[in-house]
Design brief:
single chain; alpha+beta; 5-stranded mixed sheet; 4 helices
Length: about 120
């Protein structure tokens, strides 16, 4: 997240779980969550430069860890970079391998893009 902020992205971050719980999340869950956030922030910076991003992470042990990254859709489309979209496909597969799911796309109103992930978070 600091990398995105350093690059000029305004990131509104909401953490809705106890820090002690977050520190106790399984390593694989934490690694998968990190990659999802990293890719979503990179995509927002690439495809909606200058737009604010909202990152919400929620969860508790014994339930799920959820991640939602949203940003406004910009008018006009930046030039398509070779390999565009492959990161989200890879993350969808990674989330599935972890027993979770990842969905991404533009909301029905056409104004907001989101990446939403759910990862299992076993009780300690």
């Amino acid at each position: 997240m600091e990398e995105a902020r350093t690059a000029g992205t305004d990131v509104d971050f909401v953490l809705d779980c106890a820090p002690a719980d977050a520190d106790g999340a399984p390593t694989a869950t934490g690694r998968t969550a990190y990659r999802i956030v990293q890719e979503a922030l990179t995509n927002a910076r690439k495809h909606a430069p200058g737009q604010p991003v909202r990152l919400v992470v929620r969860g508790t042990p014994g339930a799920d860890l959820t991640i939602e990254v949203t940003n406004p859709v910009t008018t006009g489309s930046p030039s398509r970079v070779p390999g565009s979209g492959l990161g989200l496909i890879g993350l969808t597969e990674r989330a599935a391998l972890a027993g979770g799911e990842l969905r991404h796309g533009v909301h029905d109103d056409g104004t907001t893009h989101s990446v939403r992930a759910r990862l299992p978070w076993p009780a300690a």
